[in-house]
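user: can you give me the structure for this one chain? tokens are fine.
assistant: on it. calling the predictor now.
[tool input]
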Amino acid sequence: MNTNTESTLERINRNDPNLKELILAYPYFPRDADEWGELGWGIGRNTHIETVELDFISWIGDENKHASFVRSFCQGICQNRSLQRFALKFCDFDLFDKGILQELVPFLVHNQCLRVLDFYFSPIESGGARLLGSTLERRTNKSIEKFVLSGTEMGLDDEGESVNALLTSLKKYTHLKTLELETNEIGQVGCNTISTLLTSTSSKLQKLDLRDSAIDNYKLASLTSSLAKNTALQELDLGNNFSITATGWAPLLSLLRSPSCNLKNISLNENNIDYDMTVALVASLADNHTLTKLSLCGNPSITTPGFVAISTLLQIQGTHLEHLDLGENDLDDDVAVALSNSLANNCTLKTLILNDNPSITTTGFVALSAIFQNPDTQLTFLDLTENNINDDSAIAFATSLINNDKLNTLSLGTPPPLTSTGWAAFSRLLCNASSINNTYLSNHTLKSFGSSIRCVPGTEKVRTYLELNRIDKRCKKHKILLAHFMGRFSMEHFADMKVELLVHVLAWISKSGFKFKSRKGNCRISQSALFHFIRSEPSLFGRIDKTGSNVKGGVRRLADRETDGKVWKKMRI
């Protein structure tokens, strides 16, 4: 067992109250059955751990041997009564076939603190679904709030009957808020049971994920009829259900138009949505006052006229869209211009995702950049990854963002496809060093380009400025010190100042706590700036003899220049 695992095991065995979460992820696993068992029994006796998660349980070699390791672990944790969340993610072998799920039954039945149960792309198949259903029936405390069964291969061999058995056991779980069933065969009978859950007067279900679950027109009709009677559900994901046609979508669109609709987030990613269905969707959402998030990623069949129609939603008074995902749709410049025009006066949208639309050219990106000239824009996140961004596009965005104080992330790709020209434009945006006043008025809000630019040549200054924006509330002050009081120090900023004002400026400089890396190690900006100040104009300061007496000078009196004085006096940063 490696040192980190041993240290963690020691904390588990001594019941460290500060150890609340344990995540075991490949390749940092115990090495053999003894270590797996010891770790499991340690967790079983622990009373403070609240989360245990196992990620990427896959090995090349003897699958049965390694499955026995996990069984030993599960045997141990069955004694635990403090866990609130248990997760198995990305397991390569069948948890039911290898007996792992069976070992967890005592834990699932007797741990009354359990709130989250997560089997994410870890197959349990139909036999496991039935076992889980009977196990949940045996629990006396129906306290589970989140149940994730994504990619578990349930119902594939029995047309969803096993899924129905599991879902039936959830009828008494009145605290259930999240149910994720992505990539399973739900079946018509399973959809009927979900409908029963939704129509229950005690239902608190807020999120339902049915991505890639073989939903067709009939199943969607059953779900929609129950949603009309439900007031709790806020998030619905129907992505990757290609069998739904215009006939199936019609009842859902009627629901979205209804005043009783409470949905806030709907995802229709990667479906067979065409132009006509899009026009009907826009008409429904024009009367909707609750939806804040709409995802239409991967629907190129909507076509350019359809996406232009979607952009008009952003102009309608009374709609409250905050998140719009139009990624992977082969959008072109016409759509980009339409979005820009619609957002010219929009004050609700906060997130716009336009990734992987390579047909947008510089013309489209220049149009999109104009969004940030709208003083009322609330856009904080713009995703332009996997697009043909170039230096001209970067310059347009840098110019438009000068007075923007909302955008936190401008995601450009990995790595962003820019040259030194584009990065120089962003450097000027973040810290305009032409004057102290222009540095003060630079952009101090942008914090990220979406991915790390650590290894991108020519981004050293940009990285420093982004770091200041991220971690320091006084970034304006520190940018001024970095740009004007480091390296080749100039006294022109102080040339006409009175001594009274100069004293305040020196005090202002000395209070910086931000550290930066220099050739001699970490150094405070204030220390370096004061050093350069004194070295540049030693005549301003008195000379001290060996006894500590002031031999000569003091600070010589200078004339005050009104304009510089105003700049320094208003910089309360």
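assistant: here you go. Confidence is low (pLDDT under 50) at residues 517-522, 548-573. The chain has 21 helices and 18 strands.
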